[in-house]
Amino acid sequence: MRMGLVGLGKMGANMRERLRSGGIEVTGYDRNPEVTDVPSLAALVASLPVGARIVWVMVPAGPVTHAVIDELAGLLTVGDLVIDGGNSHFTEDGAHAAQLAAHGIGYVDAGVSGGVWGRVNGYGLMVGGTADHVALAMEVFDVLRPEGPRAEGFVHAGSVGAGHYTKMVHNGIEYGLMQAYAEGYELLEASDLVTDVTGTLKAWTRGTVVRSWLLDLLVKALEEDPALGDISDWVEDSGEGRWTVDAAIDAAVPVPVISAALFARFASRQTDSPAMKVVAALRQQFGGHDVKSSGQSS
């Protein structure tokens, strides 16, 4: 089997290697000439044998994805299949599917989890689309997913959009989990009783109800840099957390943990919090409580 892969960043390049090691021939295209296999998207499509061609798109969500799908709509033909494996918003999948369907081209949206470790461990895959279109790409999905039963690491979650929707919720849950581990870590560090915080967290990685791969990665990070001195406390968000909260509002579903985790990331970016300055000022006004001057250490 031969397929195309558009986007050879950290995840895309690793996916190319896993696919190749699994016996699938991959032609990759990227704007970076140092990593690309072909000079253009047209050359990628031309390299694939005609008939049910599969092109996996792994580029940033939004305008870049739209541009790639626009170009593929003019290059591919009836019976071919496009898989969007990036972090596109699920509301965009219907339009992409309809655009390609007008040319007889199939569309599957795939939520992909696994990060930089996916090349070795496999990727968790959540896909949306028709049963026929998903079946066309099952050989690809089986190589990318973790070893073991298909149901553990892969799901055909529903119709077009379901793959990206489930990945969005997955990432929202991830926000909450990371925030809980972070708060637990800080509370352990604040105790005079606990002298081995890293060891405590490592002990939790086996047998406890809070064990997880994220906890394993936290222990790994602390073993490499016990004070986390090389890492800033500025935390970015890539969009999925916001989308999860937006979807929860639309569905009137309470998600207080995910919302709080998202807002904690916003707070991490403030050197001085205007809101907390207001709180301090109000406490001084109504109660005469002491305040610290700007720049005064705690």
Description:
- With 298 residues, the chain is of the alpha/beta class.
- Helix content is 48%, strand content 12%.
- It has 13 helices and seven strands.
- The protein has helices at residues 10-21, 41-46, 63-75, 93-101, 118-121, 131-136, 138-144, 162-189, 197-203, 213-224, 240-251, 256-268, 274-287; strands at 2-6, 25-29, 54-57, 81-84, 106-113, 124-128, 154-158.
- The chain has a seven-stranded mixed β-sheet, sandwiched between helices.
- Helix 1 links the parallel strand 1 and strand 2 (25-29).
- Helix 8 (162-189) packs across helix 12 (256-268) and helix 9 (197-203) packs antiparallel against helix 10.
- The protein is elongated, with a radius of gyration of 23 Å.
- The protein starts with a strand and ends in an 11-residue tail after the last helix.
